[in-house]
Amino acid sequence: MMEIIMGEFQTATVIMVSHRLGVVVDMFNRVLIMDKGQLVEDGAPRTLAKTDGSWFAQLLKSAKEH
């Protein structure tokens, strides 16, 4: 399904809610992290994944542990 989304919507903005963070890192160029309805982080997933203390890095680490 991701191949279809990425192929058909190359020039469009795609908003996706996902708990599969590996997909987010591999397929998207921007991620917004929300907590309790508030935006807490915004940036490139690969950059945020490498940023110590970022919400996204912590979520990735937690997902890999489960």
From TrEMBL:
Taxonomy, superkingdom: Eukaryota
Name of the protein in question: Uncharacterized protein
Source species: Akanthomyces muscarius (Entomopathogenic fungus)
